[in-house]
Amino acid sequence: MVASYARRIGALICGAAFALAATAASAQTPPPPTTAPTKGTEVKQVTPAVETPKSASPPAPTQGSTAVAGWNNPPADWTKLSERRQYASIPGRETNVLIQAGGREWRAFRNGPLTLYGGWFIVLVAIAILAFYVIMGPVKLKEPPTGRLIERFNSIERTVHWTMAITFVLLALTGIIMFFGKYLVLPWLGYTAFAWLTIVSKNIHNFVGPLFIFSIVVGFLIFVKDNMFRAIDWTWIKRFGGMYSKHEVPSGRFNGLEKLWFWAGLTLAGVAMSVTGLILDFPNWNQGREAMQLANVVHLGVAVLFIGAAFGHIYIGTIGMQGAYRSMREGYVDEEWAREHHSIWYEEVKQGKRPERIVPAGSTQPAPGDD
């Protein structure tokens, strides 16, 4: 019974579907022509002409309209116009200057020659140091160590030095990321990750900078007394100390190259980096944009030279000279090391003219902090 009703309903649905299809096909068929054409006569379909209304020509654009090609090109005397003082309700310096023409010159120099030549300078210095190490190797002692130790740096001097060293490395790395990052890091790290890296680098740079300045001031006060130039220091510089010859040029506690690094690097470059860094770190000191741009150029230029010179200092203090790193890590050097590299200082220590101490062979080396 149910199957019979189902067959009837299915037949009704199929018939309705066929009827709808036939109706749609007949609706799409064009009606026959009302007048039958005679044999041999070509039937032409005539399309009624639509008359287009005549419109008036558009009015010519007025002077200064955005419809004129080149309306957004700067005027010929752009510098004079852009630096013209305007009205501003916000108090402050240069708030009424909309566009500063010097900004374009600063951007072109900063992103052009300064970035290009500064980057290549750092790369070439690193390559030169690597080649020097491969060819010459480290400076070794000519005689075996004696086992007797001489105090080289006390705990305060080492603390100040490592504070300067660690803060300098942090500033150099974060500065390189901000300066060269969009050319070296951005292509492989991507925009999102590089944005976060730059933000973190900027904040580390801004907050570590004042600590670096403080360590420079303290370091200068501690080491300046032993970095006064003598006549023998210029001989040491001209002969590069004779470290790769049989007889090394005598020197005091610091040789000529170390003194040159102290005055040119720690003092002059440190002061330039500190002053310009503070100008950039605190823009709310009411300095103008031109001062900020000049500070940025000086800061970056000196930083590039500072990093290149620091490569040499780090090289000599680590793998470039045996025993040099130990002197700053533990505070003591072997007697033979002092005699060969700083003979004048060694004799002064032996004669009791210096505050540094000599530890006899076999004695226990003082623990850090007891010196």
Strand-and-helix sequence, N→C?
HHHEHHHHHHHEHHE
Number of helices: 12
- Helix percent reads 55-70%
Quickly name the level 1 CATH class of one domain. Answer: Mainly Alpha
* Helix vs. strand class: mainly alpha
The CATH architecture classification of one domain is Up-down Bundle
- Please state how the strands of the largest beta sheet are arranged side by side: 2-1-3
**Main beta-sheet strand count, sense and barrel state:** 3 strands, antiparallel
Q: Name the quaternary structure.
A: single chain
Arithmetic mean of pLDDT: 81
End-to-end distance: 112 Å
Binned strand content: under 5%
Description:
The protein is mostly helical and 371 residues long. Helix 3 runs parallel beside helix 9, helix 4 (155-184) packs antiparallel against helix 6 (191-223) and helix 8 (256-281) packs antiparallel against helix 9 (289-317). The longest helix is centred in the first third of the chain and has 35 residues, at 102-136. It has a domain at 145-359: Fumarate Reductase Cytochrome B subunit. The mean pLDDT is 81. It has 12 helices and 3 strands; from the N terminus they run αααβαααααααβααβ.
Tell me the layout of helices and strands.
Layout: H1 2-28, H2 78-82, H3 102-136, E1 149-151, H4 155-184, H5 186-189, H6 191-223, H7 231-238, H8 256-281, H9 289-317, H10 324-329, E2 332-334, H11 335-341, H12 343-350, E3 358-359
Antiparallel strand pairs: 1-2, 1-3
Helix pairs in contact: 3-9, 4-6, 6-8, 8-9, 11-12
